[in-house]
């Protein structure tokens, strides 16, 4: 943390500049996490989300097409290159410069929706999502009308400066209108969506997510102020995220123990690691379903899920430079037996 950041915090506080204060606090939390102090970073984020600063909330209005989405207080590990873009979004919104519509594109499980939740938490805004089930209607001509009514609802929100609207998997409305496989009805719906985005209240933050960016309507892409690519994970990013998740899980499941060196070796052995969504599920289920009588059983389960049970052999593990103790943990074969097998291989050579 730099002196300038402390001065900024004091200045923003004295000016009652809540957006500036939270933005600077977020930058400080990010620097702590980047320097390896994830717990302190998470604590700062929790303080921000639980702050008692008065912010007018939306009244209990009844909306047909948008629904409230709960925001959790969990921190979200992201690669630095994506994290910098998210900081840029927070800064842009904080400056009230009319930059308020963003498109997140990337494969499933890359953290698009969770990032929207985190942005809402940082900005202290309520998060609503568009309910496509109520929006899309099989009756001819009804879906474009529903889209128009959706934006009427959005523009009627009492405190738009305190709201984020999520178009999750906006692909359903945003496929290329020139695509012959796309029915005309959805093409008209996309046109209604374009008109709605052109006239929406700029105080609302609009974020769309898509897994099918290549098929996206180009005119719709131009309606967003910025597009963020979430497919920018390096192997080391995924390893860091896995270590972060396991560290949290070990604190919850007291019968487990940390072995970061072995976990890292398992992750490095994989030809390709899954994106954070699937990786998170693999790690959580491996720990949750591990034997309470074996502190490292979860590591074996992780190995099987990511690499494959057929590779859980002394020969393979030895070739990948696993130690005798690590082979024992993963296979359940005693160290003495592992040593004999390894010596036997040498003698055969």
UniProtKB/TrEMBL annotation:
Keywords: ATP-binding, Hydrolase, Metalloprotease, Nucleotide-binding, Protease. This is ATP-dependent zinc metalloprotease FtsH. One of its GO terms (biological process) is proteolysis. SMART domains: AAA. GO terms for molecular function: ATP binding; ATP hydrolysis activity; metallopeptidase activity. It is an enzyme of class 3 (hydrolase). Belongs to the AAA ATPase family. Its EC number is 3.4.24.-. Gene3D superfamilies: P-loop containing nucleotide triphosphate hydrolases. It holds the Pfam family AAA. Residues 98-234 form the AAA+ ATPase domain. It comes from Staphylococcus caeli. It comes from the Bacteria. CDD domains: RecA-like_protease.
């Amino acid at each position: 943390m730099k002196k300038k950041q402390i001065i900024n915090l004091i200045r923003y506080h004295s000016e009652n500049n809540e957006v500036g204060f939270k933005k600077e606090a977020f930058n400080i939390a990010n620097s702590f996490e980047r320097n390896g102090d994830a717990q302190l970073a998470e604590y700062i984020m929790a303080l921000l989300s639980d702050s008692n600063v008065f912010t007018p909330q939306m009244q209990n209005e009844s909306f047909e097409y948008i629904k409230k989405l709960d925001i959790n207080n969990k921190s979200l590990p992201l690669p630095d290159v994506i994290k910098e873009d998210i900081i840029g979004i927070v800064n842009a919104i904080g400056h009230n410069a009319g930059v308020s519509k963003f498109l997140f594109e990337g494969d499933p499980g890359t953290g698009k929706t969770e990032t929207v939740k985190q942005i809402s938490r940082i900005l202290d805004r309520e998060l609503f999502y568009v309910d496509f089930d109520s929006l899309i209607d099989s009756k001819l001509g009804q879906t474009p009308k529903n889209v128009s009514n959706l934006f009427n609802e959005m523009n009627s929100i009492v405190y738009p400066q305190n709201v984020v609207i999520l178009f999750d998997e906006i692909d359903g409305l945003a496929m290329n209108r020139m695509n012959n496989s796309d029915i005309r009805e959805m093409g008209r719906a996309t046109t209604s969506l374009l008109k709605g985005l052109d006239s929406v209240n700029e105080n609302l933050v609009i974020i769309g997510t898509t897994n099918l960016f290549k098929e996206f309507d180009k005119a719709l892409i131009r309606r967003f102020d910025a597009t963020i690519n979430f497919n920018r994970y390096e192997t080391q990013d995924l390893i860091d995220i896995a270590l972060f998740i396991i560290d949290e899980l070990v604190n919850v499941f007291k019968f487990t123990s940390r072995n970061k060196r072995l976990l890292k070796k398992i992750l490095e052995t994989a030809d390709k690691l899954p994106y954070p969504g699937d990786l998170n599920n693999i790690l959580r289920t491996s720990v949750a379903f591990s034997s309470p009588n074996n502190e490292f059983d979860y590591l074996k389960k992780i190995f099987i899920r990511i690499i494959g049970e057929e590779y859980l052999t002394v020969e393979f593990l030895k070739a990948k430079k696993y130690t005798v103790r690590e082979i024992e943990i993963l296979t359940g074969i005693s160290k003495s037996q592992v040593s004999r097998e390894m010596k036997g291989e040498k003698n055969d050579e």
